[in-house]
Records
---
Amino acid sequence: MTVSAPLLNMRGIVKSFPGVQALRGVNFSLKAGEVLALLGENGAGKSTLMKVLGGAFRADAGAIEIDGVPQHFNSPQDSRRAGVAVIYQEFNLVPGLTACENIFLGQEPTHAGFVAQTQERRQAAELFQRLGVEVDLDAPCRRLTTAQQQLVEIAKALAFQVRIIVMDEPSAALTSHEVSRLFAIIEELKRQGIGVVYISHRLDEIFTVADRVTVLRDGLNVGERPIAQVTRQELIELMVGRELSDEFPKRSTTIGPPRLEVTGLRRGRAVCDVSLSVRRGEILALTGLVGAGRTETVRLIFGADPREAGEIRLDGRLLAIRSPRDAIAAGIGLLTEDRKLQGLVLGHSVRENFGLPNLNWLTRGGFVMLRRERDEFARYVATLRIKTSSGEQRAGTLSGGNQQKVVLAKWLARNCDVLIFDEPTRGIDVGAKYEIYLLMNELAAQGKAILMISSELPEVLGMADRILVLHEGRVTGEIADARGATQEQIMKLAIA
Amino acid sequence: MPPGLKRQNITSQMMPMTRTLSRLLTDYGMIFVLALLCAFFSVATYSEQSPTGEAAARQVAKTLDSQFGKTPRVLIVARDQADEALFASKLDAALSSSGAKVLAVVKGEPKDARAELQKIVASGESLDAIAGTRATAAWLVFADLKADFPKLGDPQLVQPRTEKWPNFLKSENLVNIANQIAVIAIIAIGMTMVIITGGIDLSVGSLIALSAVLASRFIRDYAGAEQATALGMTLAGIAAILVCGMIGAFSGGMITVFGIPPFIVTLAMMLVGSGLAYILAAGQSIYQLPDSFVWLGRGEGLWKIPNAVLLMAILYGAAHVLMSRMRLGRHLYAVGGNREAARLSGVPVWRVLMFAYIASALLAGLGGVIMASQLKSGSATYGNMYELYVIAAVVVGGTSLSGGEGKMFGTLIGAFTIAVIQNGMNLTNVESYTQKVVLGGVILGAVLLDKIRHRSS
């Protein structure tokens, strides 16, 4: 595809919030039929920039041009009319409405006041055909998979003559198979002359899908390169602003006797007879495709769901875990995959969140020892370098990395023997990732048993001592020495 | 990210005083609305006040003492009415103890006063002062004493002074407000807990009726009716409250074990509770209760504060400590803020929910007993629609119906806001239908204010 004059040109965009300048004169351009990756750590200004483009925020200064025509976006509607569609991580779909109804929501074709349903269905079918996929038009969206919901969002954008599509972390909740199909669709969008802005923390994907990459740091452009002329290392350094010796910290391991032993774990079709053991000082990675039963397995160990069969032992002692409360009391901690829905009470202060699983030792006679709680929390804020204005800041206002650190602090303070990390670095920027890896290593060195779920194969290979691959609720393979393993080896086991 | 930083910047520049003030504003914004309402009703009910009864007697005694020294000779004149008779007897007692000589006390009409004056003249005595109420001092008999009774000396008419003071701010009225709201405020404690967990309890109004009927029946049937002892009445009250608690436990069980939405469960229990109350009362009101039963609802304890109001204050203090300082309180907030996150952090979610519904029902039961005591009878009609007033108090107090946030004292302020509006409108003669319209508007306005405040912060 030959690239012509810029489709979108944003110049000198400035946006500040009280107390913080999120964008300090960012320039950004996108050509028709181009995929531009927008990179940057959390808080670098990516989301703010895209919200300015999507009309959710008004810039304090700067100009936006589409096809050379100046634009003034005062609302998401304005930007949509100008041909911009932003697909956020949290989809804007009504769960109870069908795919077809969602696509045309707010712009239904009508005949004398009645929705022209046949026309709607025909157009929706055409849109999915254009994307080369099949989605059940009549199923309510809540029953569609995440990937299918994303397709509905894309179809919705296409239905409105979109010129520019912004995708914010589109692959975060997709399996690798679904990701490759998404790339095919992005290829198709390119062919149709649509400009795509692709935001992701996964560098591998960026090298696969993007034509060009723009890196933001602290509200400024720090680099813009054609993808062919940049290396992974360079990108990370641009984002972080310093040289990282390695993505994954090195450590020496001394692995002891088994700590957590699970045998014959079973629940429905999601988990069929899973056995595993994690030894002292060991990091065991549990991997596989999304839906392979990884999260389900650890939820059974943690007592979050009732198990149909299976024994759980800690240091040889049989545990009767029937609820998370039992698991916690026994010395098991779970850092959930979804921090916002399961890990934190977003509306409450970070201190209260920290205290929640620790109240048993932070209370005396039913009373919370507030001073002790504050002091303990302050200690973890210092050691984990949590960026928070005070312990009273609401958890929901922290960045992803800092939220994860608060969750970590919760469990570290409990001094668990077994820590289960479910996708510990999802949605977290490179710098914070490294800190979390360091911490995991340190915990392992203290003799704790660590069970890590991750979909990111480089992370699995970089962090684990041993790898267990699941497929459809069963263990399909074990790689005893993770250091020598390859991504291909894991993938083969994962698709079994 | 921006809101957190913003907060830090502002607070770090602020003086501690303003910080406390702004925290008070964010935590209890309604307190300013309440203050404003009080100020408004004070101005609106500002009027001439003349003390009556004991207060008037005290004032007049003081005047006499300062004007005439230790031993004035006084005639006390009052009409034959309860408060004036009280004035007369209290003044008599006060003067006698201070050494003044009360020649006579008239309780009657102008002709009685004339007769008494003639009697004094006849006996050759002279008079320094005539102490009357505002009504008797205006009697024509005293208009021209020098001409009518030249031998009486030169007695002065002393009467209570008037002063300007808002009816709203009279201590009786303030106590009245507190007394009126006590039942609703006490029940609102439990409701606040339930709403903070993200639930609702619609059954409290019916539980008031059930508890009132049960307590009265227990007293009538088992504790000796009018001859019941304090112990018997206490046991009857506790039994009624415990029955309500069991209903709360049932609701809580349905909600936690079977996962039925609280709205549905408590709606059902509202019907069940009301129906049971009517059945138990056989459609009548139960009034075979001893006079001493009103101790709880109408009796006065410390500093002349009604017992019900004292109880309310104690319960709010305890509830505030529970919610802000204790583990259970933390758990209540956590369950409402994010149930799944709380469960995965080891919070015993179902136990916490059970506590909230049982507490709500127990407090509703207590409210019922207080109401029966205030009205000295038990009837199934009590507490009708109270659930809505209780919920209104909680919501006006700033507790979010979606759970996870709210303050106990906010609810108390909410309850008082509602009571002050009702009382103020009564004092300014607003019709009761109009009152409903205004109250509805106020509830909406309070929630709106809360929303705007949340958006701006």
---
Amino acid sequence: MNSWIAFWNILKKDIRNYYLKPPNISWGIIFPLSWTLMQLIGTPQAGLDSIRGLLPGLMGMSILFGTTSMLAVTITFERRGRSFERLLIAPISMTTMVLAKISGAIIFGVSIAFSPLLFAAFLTELSGINWGVAIISILLMAVTSTLLGFAIAVSSKEVFEAQTYSNFFRFPMLFLSGLFLPIEKLPVFLRPVSYCLPLTYGVDMLNGAIMHTGYMNVWLSLTVLIGFGVLLFYFCQWNIKRKWIL
Amino acid sequence: MGIVSVRNLKKEYGDFTAVDGISFDIEQGEIFGFLGPNGAGKTTTINMLIGLCRPTAGTIFIDGIDSIKDIKKAQSIMGVVADESNLYDEMDGYDNLCFCASLYGMRKAEREKRAKELLEWFGLKNAGRRPFRAYSKGMRRKLTIAAGIIHKPKILFLDEPTTGIDVESARQIRSLILDLKRQGTTVFLTTHYIEDAQRICDRIAFIVNGKIVKSGTVEELMENAEKEHIIKLTLNDNANGIKAELQRHFPTIRIEAEEGNTCFISSPERIALSPLLQYLDKKGISVFEAKEMRPTLEDVFVKVTGIEVNKLHKEKEGGKK
């Protein structure tokens, strides 16, 4: 059987059905966009150049909220209506199914990540960005955040529940992952927590690509992000089998 | 070995045994009915067969495939219709069918052709472009069944296909199930509508408390019941008042009184009515009507399971709300 047919059609369905669902619009689009605009509009008093410094954090935050919101919608809506069972009883592997379900959210998260860049392009100079590293870090942040959202959504019954659980992780991550506050400025006892969060490594890579001020070695961050991705991917599959195939 | 062969299938949730070592075979092309009250283990059994639940013990072979070891291979030849119409509200009927076909690897032209074919067959052609959420309950059920057979499965699992829908839609669905059988599809059907099962099933199994308590063809299940003679009497007085006295006087027959003026008398032998009528007449009780009752599968079900059919229906309808 051609798994690609199933993969492509699940992805297409998710994009068509869920991108514009209200919970996704509010948490996945409006929240990151308004935060971005608030930061960008408020910053010129500190000089236009400082806008560039805000970009890694704003992009990381947009990815985090975009991907986790999308996953909360695609999983919980289908679970509530029991249409998710259709995917579980279809002759497609769990790997294909999980890949298909996360792809819609990854594409969404990556697209939302470029909105701060787009706004910033009107306000400041964006030359000298290492686009290769920037795109890889955006992609890996989207993958790990999506899988984190997946793990949360699998454990939730309703969309609001998934969004609430997600917020327990998302808001602390805003402050602990170096999005807006450098990790070295965090209290010492909190720093180990920061290094357990995949977003920390992604944002550091983005800082390196945009501001040339990366704190960690880019290869180390890349390896850690891939490691987080693989680990979360298998955890999600295990969690589905455990929770939904009783 | 049939197309479905189940041996000593068991499912435990902690201390609770939902399915307790059941075994059965389903032959190619037959409609096999699985009847039982809420919590009897019907859905757990169906979930184990389709791969939504892991058995604690036992074996399941579907068309020769060990489905516990290779569920994905077994799933490619089975169609599943859940007890809820679980298609996508956001999509229209046609897109829903095409999407379900894609899950089985069907190519675009093939799935579009099949979707149109099924919409026509199920009488939903004019509703094909309407969103699923705008469908009536009966239409939703029909489209869900269509989605279950889009890939022409060898075996179809139907969980409560006619629950909660109007009489006409239920009749159409029964007719569709019989059409599927004529086309060679094997059907595993769970229902609490015993008359539905009696009308369309080749064989039936009654499940209670996780165990199959009786199984066979409708004729086999009815065999013993039909040996019993039952007469319904409508009296001019409360039947309960005279029941004990009647039973004492006629010990060879069994007397059951219902609320009101009705009582049932039953016996394995033919019942001579005149002594009974004379006795009642002497007691000043008139018999307005005496009617011979043919036993139904419902009577067999009640006798075997000890569960009142009305209670079964109420439980199910309540569960659907």
